[in-house]
Each structure stands twice: as C-alpha cells, then as structure tokens.
Amino acid sequence: MDDKYAIIVVDDDEVLSRLLKQYFTGLGHVCEAFSNAEAALERMSEAAFDVLVTDIVLPGMKGLELAERAHRLLPEMSIIVTTGFIDNFSYDEAIAAGAADFIKKPFSLNELMIRIKHVRLQERLRKMSITDELTGLPNRRGFFVLAEQQLRSAQRSRGSLVLLFADLDDFKMINDTLGHQAGDEALCSMADLFRQSYRDSDIIARMGGDEFAILLVNPTEHGVKASQDRLQQNLDQFNARENGAYRLKASIGMATFEPTEQNSMDSLMRLADERMYAEKERRRKNGVHKA
User: Fold this and answer.
1) Beta partners for 164?
2) What is the pLDDT, as a whole number, of residue 96?
3) pLDDT, tens digit, 9 for 90 and up, residues 225-275
4) Is pTM beyond 0.90 here?
C-alpha cells in the first residue's frame, strides 16, 4: 500500500518528535509534531488527520486523555500510543480511550510505519464491513455500532435521541415496472435526500431493502419538525423534476429515547417500525402520498 497519510505526533521528547517528522515527511506523508496535548488538540480542531501518534506521559494533559478527546474530535483518525513504562501500561485503558494500537519505546521507525499501515488497513476493512455498498450509508450493522455509542452517551448525559424508521412507498412497483437499475437509482436518490435533510451529526443508515433509519442526536422539538419539513421540501422538489420516471415517497415512524426509562436501541427500533407500518397503512387508506 502506498497511501499517504496526514500524521500528527505528540511527544515532549523534541529529538524523537523531530526524527519522526523528518521520517514521515521523507516518505511523502504530511506530518506535524507537538510537544503538548493542548496545542495538538487545537490543531486537530482546525484540520483533519489520519493518524495520531502520542506518548502516554505528557506535560499537562496525559496521552490517554488526549487520545479520548482526539477520538471524539476526529472519529475516523487512527490513534497509536507509545510508552516507555510498559509495567504501568493498561492496554484496556488505551483501547477504551480510542487507541487502535500501542508500541513500546524504544521502537524502530520501520516498526512504527508497519503498525500505522496495519491499523489503517484494519480501519478500512472495518468501514467496508459496516457500509452499504450501494448508497455509501452505514448498513444495519454499522447503524447499530454507531447508534449504541450514542445511546450510551445519552444515558450518561441524559441527552435526547429521536429514532426515525423509513420505508419507501411503492418501491416494488419501481423495480417491477422500470427494472432493478431504476430501483437502485431510487434508493441512492432517497439516501441523498436524507443526507440533504438531516444534520451531519445525525446517523443515517440503509437497514436493508428499501428501509432506512435516521437517529437524530440531541435534537430540539423545533429541530425535529424542521428536519421533517426539509425532507418533505426535498421530496417535493425531486418529484417535480422534468421527465421523472418515478416519484419518491416514504412512510416514517418515530420513537423517542426517554432518559428516565431503560430504552434499548432494539426496543426503540421496534417501536419506530410499528409506527412506520401504522403510518403506511393510514396513508394507504387515505390515499396520502407525502412523506
């Protein structure tokens, strides 16, 4: 693999930091080095990096706290922690903080590069396993991985979550009358409309077939309504296109996470699914065609 990475190094050993920066840039990677966690975090808030290499022992904020905060800031970034104090090192704590690997000092530059390539490959394979190939959205497995993280966070902070479960209306008719290619195009178009309608912080996934799930993270009541209005406007605009071979319509059920109750993501999904089918039946009886 000859991928080029953006790497950020955090170590108060200036000789080592300078050596690592020279090594990585010499291989064609972009590399920035910092001697303390605070400055590194500020830089990571300004620019995205693929890899963080940080010592555990740092002045001020320690390396594991840096790893945890950096992981929240850049979830796609791979984190490798280094330590010269292996007897006091906890692998479980490093993983819980968001690290993908660790390496004991002293280490060779080649060994560090091999570990970076390995964790990036593992991350690529993991991402492939949780991504829907057709739409590029998280698949069902990916949704539950991401949603469970948000659920745990909401339980700790007593935050709010709203789960929407959507099913395309008349999707079988599109497949049967226009062919599976048109059906695939309809699914991709619906995925794009969801992306346009909801926030980047929300989780949008294709659950399989013509079913989608959207988890709204810490929404306000106004925000939920505003996102639903945006979706309807985007659907109306899509359906008003010239020479459109089909229209997109969706039935949506909603379930709300209650901090005072022991909600699981499975129970929220069942409730949203039931309400979606009730909405679909109501719309079928009334001849309603809006989302």
Assistant:
1) 214, 254
2) 81
3) 999 999 999 999 999 998 889 999 999 999 999 877 778 999 999 999 999
4) no
Alpha carbons 227 and 216: distance in angstroms, whole number? 10
Q: Using one digit for the tens of pLDDT, what is the confidence trace for 6-18?
A: 999 999 999 999 9
- The structural domains of the chain, with segments of one domain joined by +, span 6-129, 140-286
Structure token pair of residue 15: 């000789």
> Is domain 6-129 in CATH 3.40.50.2300, yes or no?
yes
- Inform me whether the pLDDT recorded for 291 exceeds 60: no
CA–CA gap between residue 173 and residue 246 (Å, rounded): 9
Contact between residue 33 and residue 49 where contact means Cβ atoms under 8 Å apart: no
The alpha-helical segments, DSSP class H, found in the chain are 14-26, 37-44, 63-73, 91-96, 109-129, 140-157, 171-178, 180-197, 221-239, 265-286
What are the distances in angstroms from CA 167 to CA 102, 180, 264, 291? 44, 17, 21, 10
- How many other β-carbons are positioned within 10 Å of the β-carbon of residue 179? 11
CB-based contact 5:52 (threshold 8 Å):
no
Q: In the structure encoding, which two tokens stand for residue 186, read together?
A: 């309809």
The answer to whether the 6-129 and 140-286 domains have the same CATH topology is no
- DSSP for residue 143: H
CA distance 256 to 57: 42
How do residues 275-286 score in pLDDT, each as one tens digit? 999 998 887 777
Could you please state the CATH topology (level 3) that the domain comprising 140-286 is classified under.
Alpha-Beta Plaits (3.30.70)
The model's confidence at residue 290, banded by pLDDT at 50, 70 and 90, is very low
